[in-house]
Design a protein that fits this description.
single chain, mainly alpha, 16 helices
Length: 305
């Protein structure tokens, strides 16, 4: 689902496999010297394979070669976190922030550690710092909202654990089962309904998907991602006017929601209103000038006129 995204996105780290080194490891018994970038990219490869111990080892080897590298410290923190070492992860994220006080992802990630430890007030403080640095950091805003719910007793801890496991698993049937189980524990979680709806969409269960997403926005009328996801499905169903309406609601809630603007432009094209699509993408670029989807669509449809 282009533009549909799981709401429970805690970790500000995306594995870019296309950037990873393709250099094979040496089978020689002789020591081979590598630079810091090699260790960095090999660590990314190991992390992508869920081999967190090896990722930590490689990134720690990179550390003396890439001194004061906040991105590297953030990587180490993520691998420690995935290994269940919250304390070591927190120290790595703190060091990343020390090296780069403007590193929004590191603030988000340490906020996640605080959330796991049920220190909700501290978690909210770190999430706030993250989106203060980057006002377009949607994940940090969602994480703040989730921590706020938890601090007020409106989020069941076991339901969250099940939902988090569902986000991480690759098996679609298991995702659906875990989200469904989480909703048995906490039937009023808008974010879990949203994520179940996305999983059902990928599984080809369109009507159930729409039902879950609509339930999500009924529970939380401020859930921009839910409206965006409903709109995306309406495009699939060729109900373009309904899709545009959903995207408009999403950007009214979050005027910086670039994904929804891009999807709205696509819906206008399908609806035959190219000029309005172009206007939407131009507006999206006024918010985020480097957005490649809006750039590409703008060039394509301006040239076609």
């Amino acid at each position: 689902m282009a533009g549909a995204k799981s709401i429970i996105i805690w970790i500000g780290f995306v594995i870019m496999l296309g950037c990873a080194s393709s250099q094979p490891q040496s089978s020689s018994h002789h020591a081979v010297l590598h630079d810091g970038d090699w260790y960095m990219e090999e660590g990314i490869n190991a992390f992508a394979r869920n081999d967190y111990d090896r990722a930590i080892m490689l990134w720690e080897n990179a550390a003396p070669l890439l001194p004061r590298n906040a991105r590297l410290l953030n990587f180490i923190g993520l691998a420690q976190l995935r290994s269940g070492h919250d304390g070591k992860a927190s120290l790595a994220f703190e060091k990343a922030i020390e090296f780069d006080p403007g590193f929004a992802e590191a603030y988000n990630n340490i906020g996640y550690v605080m959330f796991r430890q049920r220190q909700y007030d501290q978690a909210m403080e770190f999430f706030q710092r993250a989106f203060a640095i980057d006002p377009e950091y949607v994940e940090a805003r969602q994480n703040f909202k989730l921590a706020l719910e938890a601090s007020s007793g409106n989020l069941d801890g076991w339901a969250f654990t099940l939902a988090e496991e569902a986000v991480r698993t690759e098996d679609l049937d298991q995702k659906i089962a875990l989200f469904s189980h989480a909703l048995e524990v906490d039937p009023n979680s808008a974010m879990i309904h949203n994520n179940l709806g996305v999983a059902l969409y990928y599984n080809g269960e369109i009507q159930r998907s729409v039902s879950e997403l609509q339930r999500a926005v009924e529970i939380d009328p401020g859930l921009a991602e839910g409206f965006n996801n409903v709109g995306f499905i309406y495009i699939d169903l060729a109900e373009y006017a309904k899709a545009i309406e959903q995207f408009q609601i999403a950007v009214d809630i979050d005027p910086t929601y670039i994904v929804a603007y891009n999807n709205m432009g696509r819906a206008f094209v399908k609806y035959g209103e190219i000029d309005r699509a172009i206007a939407v993408w131009e507006y999206a670029l006024s918010i985020q000038p480097a957005n490649r989807i809006a750039q590409r669509n703008l060039v394509k449809y301006q040239n076609d006129q």
